[in-house]
Amino acid sequence: MAVCVAVIGKDNSPKFISCLNPELELQFHYKVHTSLDVVEEKLSSAGINTGDVRELYLGLLYSTEEHKIFGYVTNTKIKFIVVVESANTLLRDNEVRTMFRRLHNLYTDVVCNPFYIPGDPITSKNFDDTVKSIMVNNI
Amino acid sequence: MNGNEETEVNELCIMDCKPLLTYAGDGALFSSLQSLLVQSLPQEPAEWRRSYGRPVKSVYVGASFVPFSKETLPKEGQWQLIQQPIFHIYWTECSDVDVYKSTVRDDIENWLKTLNQHNIHDWMIVLVETYDIKKSNKLLPRTTVLDKIRSDFASKHGDRCLSVINPIRSESKSADSWRGLLSRVRLLLLSAYNRTLIRFEEVIRDQRERRNEQGWSFSQYFLLQEEMAFVLEMLGIYDEALVQYDELDALFTQFVLNTNVGETPVWLSNFQGPLESWSGIVLAQTVNQTQRMLLRADRTSLLEFRSYLFSRQCAMLLLTFKPWEIAQRSLPFLHNCVQELDILEISSPPGAVACWVFLCCLEVLHTCERFNDSGQVEAYSLYTASLWAYARDKLRDLGNLCGLMPGHEPTSEQLHTVVGLSAGMGDSPPNGTQPSPTDKLREALSSKEAFRKHYLELAELAMGTYKHIGRIRSARLIGQDLAAFYLSLGEPQKAVVFLSDALSTCEEEGWKKLVASTRLSLATCYQTMQDTERYVKTCAVISCSAELEMDIRLKYFEEMMNFLDNVKAGTLWVSSLNDCFQLKSVEVCVEDGVLIKNSTIRVRLEVESLFPRTVNCRRAALSFSEHKDTPRLVAGSTAKSGDPPSRQAGGPRRSAQNLTVPQQVVDNGSCDIPLHRCSSEDMQPSNPALLRLHMVEHLDYQQDKSLGSANLVSPNPKQFLRRTDSHGKYRKVSTTTKADFSSALLADNFPLNPGKNVFIVTAKAAEKGLYRLGQLSLLLTCSLELLSPVLSPSVCFTVTHEPTSVTLNKGESDLLAGLEQDMVLTVHSGSSVIEEDTCLKLRTSRGLQMQLKSSSEHLARELIVYLPETQPFKTLSVQLRVLADQPPQKDSTVIEHKVMLSCPWASEEKTITLHFQPPFMTTFRLHTANTRKFAQVVVSGLNIQMLQLKKPQLVPISSQNIQLVSMNPSAGQDLVIGNGLNVSFMWELQLPITGPLEEMVPSPPPIKTEFTMEYSAILNSETLETEQKTLLYKCSFEIVDYKTLFVVRSRVEPAKGSEFCRAGTMCHLQLHVQRVNTSPHSSLMYEVLTDQTMWAVCGKTAAVISLDSVERQHVTLDVMPLIGGFLPLPLVRLSKYIPADQKPSGKDRKIDSHSLTSHPRLEPFSPGQVYNCSKAQQVHVLPSTTASVTSDSSLP
């Protein structure tokens, strides 16, 4: 169960951030923003050995006592960040991957919308709702 | 655990442990060899071959020896492997078979028996021999002791019995055998370990399988498996030792996690006791035996156990020289521990866990710091940064807990907490050049001062390390925390530095929420610092942040307004416009597409105010400057004529251009196309993802020419698929400097409401040229100026100037004199406005008259034209009627007229030259028929404009009594002239009967006549419809020499006797001259002028005759026709003959005065004075005699 999901554009600006608890939104903004450090680190180190298809899933970016932050980068450098609670010990890596894959599909739907201009903040209600349900149900 | 062990030292250093070996047999012998053996064994590595395909390791084996005894032998179920002898050697020196048989053999037998009893098969028998030169010489050695031993004890394991030459006695010869012994010992020792460990693994596995059984204890299992780790460590296989610990770690973690779902096993509940001690980990090579004992007694706490396990893992990592991995493992380890405390619901005094985490962090960090070569630093910095940050977090928590943060004073309760925490940390380890983490924490908690020092140090270290590894955002986050700390410390200046850095980082990447929250902190700092300027600016930005709650925004808005109202007069604070306003569109309002010099330039601005309330804009200024690019100016002026309206109307059209011609719009900074307008869409850089793809069809044909596939392909995919580097391409946060506002469009005092505002700034256009709009500045109240960056793409306007011009134009056809013509006075207003009742004065030259066509006034030579009010670049046309007088026209020369034009805007009169074509001309001729005279007037049309003529009249105006009798028809066809159409009029001149007196008048005075006729223009050449209005034409002619004086007759007659004139025969030319009127000339000369191909004159061709006395003269001349046919008569010319030296007669004096010469001379008569009757007569001349036919057809 995720507590925060964020979509970050290729220019590292937030395109979408949704938190389960709106009161903690600012805190999550900071967390997601900070995680970009690690994303960039991983991307630049991965850039050196450009072998075959890059793994989109970046794994655990960093963790705090309360939260674990996972990252995923599409080939167009769109970053998905998922924050989960550290206390949630049942969450396995595979489930996080699934979550990202779903997010990626959702994002693809958003971009396919001819009225969406790539690079704009995502305002799709459907996206928002589905992301919320992913966060809650972890499906 | 027996009591013996409890007295042991608390710490065990595995490094110091060596595999334990026993010796039996000849003790004295062994003692002599022991030191050498111990020393040489670890000098060379041995390959440790292991079963189950495990990797072969190269191991340096040391050894320590104990005498063999039953007690030392390992017992079943005892697995403290490192304290147990693993290998057993029997030493003997016996060289004599008999001695062997008697004593040694039994001894060995006993020894082996004991070993076998303990199920030990790792043994060896060493026979130490003294080098005997004699013995080696023996060709066939008898059965030796070694052979005996082998046959007795090691029939299967021959390698376990070895003889060696005593190296002490004969060093030189023993080297080989000694080396053999060493390698044999190593190999056998390792294989002993192999065997033992395999057995041990089975035990461990067995134990592990029973983990879910009642009574199983993790602690015991841990201690068991740790023995394995010890052995591996002792053998120097640290990585595998680490694996053992990692397995234990994972197992424990899993147990803890499982408590969430299942029941907690009994052993685990031992770990759940309340936390009493939180001393941090100690990273040392030694094994803390106290911990192990506590563990064995199930008396250890979770933290203690975890600390111990982690310190062992770290020890292995340190031994493999991987401090960075320690750092890497630390954070997950600490997080995991904190979480496990949570899961197991272990109660702890507040701050205890924080203390422990802090101590652990610091211990790891200090350990890492010991490795300071750059490679290691690089490797571990990646992980230490977050450790520093974590430690700092914890210290802050502790500070909060204990009231050590600035602005707080610790209460007695908090002091009590500090004491409690301090006690729980335990004693610091006594090794200390450097203060241990425990010392540091104690110190930090001891006072506010110390706390601050340590906290700042940690924060700096954390930030520094983050920056070092390039995690700027993380560093900024700490910076923000630090800023809050500094702010509460009362040092807002320092806080501002950190906040500003954080602000710019967030702004660069468009994190608006973070920007807003950072701004709020900054505002607090500025407020504390009483930096009014920055505070107000920040307030302005905050009040415009849509991310924030409205009440916060309003609060800061009020703050800003309050400060602005109370600010000292004359202060001016410049801030960025874009934070508070969004410039939506800029449009130059151009009427008719041009701006004229001295007119008002109006620029319409659409601005979105982000302020939550209405603000009053004291002055809006939009700077502009002349664009120096002169070639573009042409483009601008061409655009002005007609293009701009379409562009203005075509907002969407322009965006369509965006799609098709991207490169033109993408970089429009250099004013490629001067725009009159741009909106916020244009200001944004074009989104390459929105560009229209140029696709072309592509057909693939198969071999049989049938269509294989049809595709749409992009001819230039690289352009669109090019990856733009997302690194280093952040939004630029540039500070704008105020440009030259000396020329600016202005608007004063108007409100700006939240949301969209439209206002117009104006200025007077000064000089003509192309101007580019620069920056927009909005002055709020009196002292806050918001300044935009230079507008891009550039918006330009052109100021033009063109003088007023006046021209006078004719119609399509030429101007005709004598007829009313239409002309157009064209006034082009140029770039200026013509005011109402501006008058133009036209003055014409004589003979030209004009009038407005609309006016019914008479034509006049002076005309004043009043002009209506006219807008710039309009053309006025004034229709004029023009009439140029038709003067007596005797040839086709053009009549030139001038029009002088004076206009109020020009100081000088303008002269316009007009050329009028005459529509016709009149010529006069006098015709003679003997003595009768006829006057002919020919009116020749000169122009395609046809005219109808009426009422021709020729009237003598001199007093003479002369009558001109019209011979013109009075009725009949209309008389029409046109181009090439002539009309002739004829009058007979009737002279009065001349009296004798008058006869004497030598030459009659000329008759003055005047020709008049009426004419009217024909409007339609088909129907010959004419204009109603007729005009009168007058022309005077003078008739001179209107009297016939002489009549000449000539005839050619054949010679006498011939009937006809014949070529080649002489004929007679009869010449008669008769005077019909009195003439002052009586002396006449006749000349016969012939065509010399026709006539030959015989004799004189000319002669003088006189008619003084007679009326007539008759002359015959001989002429000969040269050819036959009808020949024109030879021409006879009569001239006045003035003989030489003749005194001019009185009548002739005037005429001849100039020609007084000594020679006689001839003067011609005027035409009409001499009438030749025979002119144009012909005579029939027969061919010469050779011709047979002749005819008489000569004419008289």
TrEMBL record, chain A:
<dbReference type="GO" id="GO:0005783">
    <property type="term" value="C:endoplasmic reticulum"/>
</dbReference>
<comment type="subunit">
    <text>Part of the multisubunit transport protein particle (TRAPP) complex.</text>
</comment>
<dbReference type="Pfam" id="PF04628">
    <property type="entry name" value="Sedlin_N"/>
</dbReference>
<keyword id="KW-0931">ER-Golgi transport</keyword>
<dbReference type="GO" id="GO:0005794">
    <property type="term" value="C:Golgi apparatus"/>
</dbReference>
<dbReference type="GO" id="GO:0030008">
    <property type="term" value="C:TRAPP complex"/>
</dbReference>
<dbReference type="InterPro" id="IPR011012">
    <property type="entry name" value="Longin-like_dom_sf"/>
</dbReference>
<dbReference type="GO" id="GO:0048471">
    <property type="term" value="C:perinuclear region of cytoplasm"/>
</dbReference>
<dbReference type="GO" id="GO:0006888">
    <property type="term" value="P:endoplasmic reticulum to Golgi vesicle-mediated transport"/>
</dbReference>
<keyword id="KW-0256">Endoplasmic reticulum</keyword>
<dbReference type="InterPro" id="IPR007233">
    <property type="entry name" value="TRAPPC"/>
</dbReference>
<comment type="similarity">
    <text>Belongs to the TRAPP small subunits family. Sedlin subfamily.</text>
</comment>
<keyword id="KW-0813">Transport</keyword>
<protein>
    <recommendedName>
        <fullName>Trafficking protein particle complex subunit</fullName>
    </recommendedName>
</protein>
<dbReference type="InterPro" id="IPR044760">
    <property type="entry name" value="TRAPPC2L"/>
</dbReference>
<keyword id="KW-0333">Golgi apparatus</keyword>
<dbReference type="InterPro" id="IPR006722">
    <property type="entry name" value="Sedlin"/>
</dbReference>
UniProtKB/TrEMBL annotation, chain B:
<keyword id="KW-0333">Golgi apparatus</keyword>
<feature type="region of interest" description="Disordered">
    <location>
        <begin position="1141"/>
        <end position="1168"/>
    </location>
</feature>
<dbReference type="InterPro" id="IPR045126">
    <property type="entry name" value="TRAPPC10/Trs130"/>
</dbReference>
<dbReference type="GO" id="GO:0006891">
    <property type="term" value="P:intra-Golgi vesicle-mediated transport"/>
</dbReference>
<dbReference type="GO" id="GO:1990071">
    <property type="term" value="C:TRAPPII protein complex"/>
</dbReference>
<dbReference type="InterPro" id="IPR021773">
    <property type="entry name" value="TPC11"/>
</dbReference>
<feature type="region of interest" description="Disordered">
    <location>
        <begin position="632"/>
        <end position="659"/>
    </location>
</feature>
<keyword id="KW-0813">Transport</keyword>
<dbReference type="InterPro" id="IPR011990">
    <property type="entry name" value="TPR-like_helical_dom_sf"/>
</dbReference>
<protein>
    <recommendedName>
        <fullName>Trafficking protein particle complex subunit 10</fullName>
    </recommendedName>
</protein>
<feature type="domain" description="TRAPPC10/Trs130 N-terminal">
    <location>
        <begin position="17"/>
        <end position="327"/>
    </location>
</feature>
<dbReference type="InterPro" id="IPR022233">
    <property type="entry name" value="TRAPPC10/Trs130_C"/>
</dbReference>
<dbReference type="InterPro" id="IPR056913">
    <property type="entry name" value="TRAPPC10/Trs130_N"/>
</dbReference>
<dbReference type="GO" id="GO:0034498">
    <property type="term" value="P:early endosome to Golgi transport"/>
</dbReference>
<dbReference type="Pfam" id="PF23604">
    <property type="entry name" value="Ig_TRAPPC10"/>
</dbReference>
<dbReference type="InterPro" id="IPR056917">
    <property type="entry name" value="Ig_TRAPPC10"/>
</dbReference>
<feature type="domain" description="TRAPPC10 Ig-like">
    <location>
        <begin position="806"/>
        <end position="918"/>
    </location>
</feature>
<dbReference type="GO" id="GO:0005829">
    <property type="term" value="C:cytosol"/>
</dbReference>
<feature type="compositionally biased region" description="Basic and acidic residues">
    <location>
        <begin position="1144"/>
        <end position="1153"/>
    </location>
</feature>
<feature type="domain" description="Trafficking protein particle complex subunit 11">
    <location>
        <begin position="416"/>
        <end position="539"/>
    </location>
</feature>
<dbReference type="Pfam" id="PF11817">
    <property type="entry name" value="Foie-gras_1"/>
</dbReference>
<feature type="domain" description="TRAPPC10/Trs130 C-terminal">
    <location>
        <begin position="1056"/>
        <end position="1182"/>
    </location>
</feature>
